[in-house]
Amino acid sequence: MGLENIGGWELITVILVGLFIFGPDKLPKLISDGVRMLRQLRDMARNATGDLSRELGTDIQLEDLNPKTFLRKHVLSEDDEAALRKPLQGVYDDLRGTAEQVKGDLSSTAAALDVHQPGPASPTPRPAVSRHAYDEAT
User: Could you please report the per-residue DSSP string of 13-79?
Assistant: First the structure.
């Protein structure tokens, strides 16, 4: 998350609220302290990923520190991941089959109800509605 996610009005609002809460004499020091802390946190994260990469013998990016991504990418083999997914695969296949069946049933019902398609029981045509022509006086 960076400043590109904050709009102009939001940034102005944050600065004004900071001025009201901390005052104009303390706000510049607080901003510089906040920026320094963000740099230190970023350096700590880089060091942590470097240490993990060396210990595990693989290349780890900062995004890989999400536990799900980390396990999937660096700890589990493809066979382990397939074994974990296997119990749910049957349920997924059943749901997909049921969804396809419902979709087919809905399509056939919609086709049967569609009056524009010629079907076994085509409805009788309605008489044309006559439109009255109005002259400009009315």
Answer: HHHHHHHHHH-TTTHHHHHHHHHHHHHHHHHHHHHHHHHHHHHHTS---GGGGSHHHHIIIIIS-HH
Nearest-angstrom CA–CA distance, 42 and 35:
11
pTM higher than the cut 0.70: no
Q: Can you say whether the dihedral through the CA atoms of 112, 118, 124, 127 is positive or negative?
A: positive
- Euclidean distance between CA atoms 84 and 74, whole angstroms: 15
* Parent domain of 47: 8-66
Under DSSP, is residue 133 helix (H, G, I), strand (E, B) or coil? Answer: coil
Same-domain pairing of 38 and 84: no
Domain membership of residue 94 (yes or no) is yes
Q: Count how many domains the chain has.
A: 2
Angle between helices 27-56 and 8-22 (to 10 degrees): 120
Model pLDDT for residues 59-118, shown as the tens digit of each residue: 767 666 677 776 666 666 677 767 777 777 788 888 888 889 988 888 888 888 875 555
CB-based contact 91:97 (threshold 8 Å):
no
